[in-house]
């Protein structure tokens, strides 16, 4: 059983969503993770808890709050409208915001861990060599934290590909715009089109396995190089 | 003190009768289509009052229930959103032959959470589209298919197509419209009606000739074949009391 045109559309949209989410998340998560790794601030625990929330919240809760908040009556919806962005639900931008929240801990936590394991020593050495803070970050910290960055990217990407509850809530299931692979599979099952559901579901299973296998191999190599 | 003794005396027959009552009262696991959410609460409460049996209700979409029943879900009665699924279950031997019947005929409504958006004639559809139009996925939900059919018959499908957002069932279509994310929604009349009138927002009751009748069939499933509570529920759904309740939510028979 091959894929239908709508299946391919869903696959393409899912890959685009996951790639965009991952790219934006890495940029936003790096300073946050850096701050969490180094700060002594009293509210560090609270910030870490907020970052970890999507790990324990059902995605439907996240999606429901996004739907209410970014609807025309919600404060988020009034904000996006006053900025001339329109309303986020049922758009690719809305899915992107949802996905970034949903995958946030998968980007922040590996980065934070990697930054913590860099330790103080390389920073002090860089400082004695008169490297500025930005210089140190880009030329010392980032190369040393490479394993964590790759891990953050792969996990964010894979987690976003598997997203279901959030897109179900705020997506609106529009072909080519907000219908991703997971909602397409759900639709096939509900419509009792089991062969199509099998084809897509099997693809998803194979993809997830490949990602985790690649991560395991990568981890082994990076401990051999850096460990 | 005396009055307490008297009260206790009065309670004795009840206490003695309780185990008898419990022996008769049963439970029935019912899978209920999302458009019946509100009326089923009332029907289940009245059913418990009338018969002493308890209906344990699971709300969901008919397609999902079908998949779950095929995989051995312990539902004893299915109140579907269509008439095809119960027929298919009977043919496949998962439903008890001869127990299938139409328990309600649903009505489609065009609805907005805003009290001033939808006029009683549905003329709002003929104006240039403003905002999104929520419908249930027409491939999955009969109410979604009915919405597409009505738009087609009105010659307005092409106009509205770019505005359409789909919920996976009629419950989600309602949710999109109720939060205002969609200005309009084709929903089940039962979702916005209580005690015989539209209870919130504004609605146009779509005329019956614009779509195929939304016959909703019920069937007793194999796990419920020998359960008296399942039979009692099916009989109760055919009673005047149950029909009066359903009529108040806009269903017909």
Task: Walk me through this protein's architecture.
The complex is a heterodimer of chains A (227) and B (253). Chain A is mainly alpha-helical and 227 residues long. Chain A has one domain (5-224): MetI-like (MetI-like fold), CATH 1.10.3720. Chain A is built from eleven helices and no strands. Chain A has helices spanning 5-38, 44-56, 59-69, 75-82, 92-118, 121-128, 133-144, 146-161, 165-170, 181-190, 194-226. Chain A starts with a helix and ends with a helix. By secondary structure, chain B is of the alpha/beta class. Chain B is built from ten helices and twelve strands. In chain B, β9 and β10 (197-198) form a beta hairpin. The chains are: A mainly alpha (227), B alpha/beta (253). The interface between A and B is medium-sized, with 20 and 22 residues.
Which terms summarize this structure?
heterodimer, A: 227 residues, mainly alpha, MetI-like fold, 78% helix, globular, B: 253 residues, alpha/beta, 5-stranded mixed sheet, 10 helices, 22% strand, transport (chain A), transmembrane helix (chain A), transmembrane (chain A), membrane (chain A), ModB_ABC (chain A)
Condensed summary:
Chain A: One of its GO terms (cellular component) is plasma membrane. The complex is a heterodimer of chains A (227) and B (253). Chain A has 227 residues and is mostly helical.
Helix content of chain B: 40-55%
Global morphology of chain B: globular
According to CATH, what is the class of chain A? Answer: Mainly Alpha
Structural class of chain A: mainly alpha
The count of strands of chain B amounts to 12
Task: Identify the most extensive interface between protein chains.
Answer: A-B, 20 and 22 residues
Mean pLDDT of chain A: 91
Transmembrane segments (chain A): 12-37, 43-70, 82-102, 197-218
Subcellular location (chain A): Cell inner membrane; Cell membrane
Function (chain A): Part of the binding-protein-dependent transport system for molybdenum; probably responsible for the translocation of the substrate across the membrane.
GO molecular function, one term (chain A): molybdate ion transmembrane transporter activity
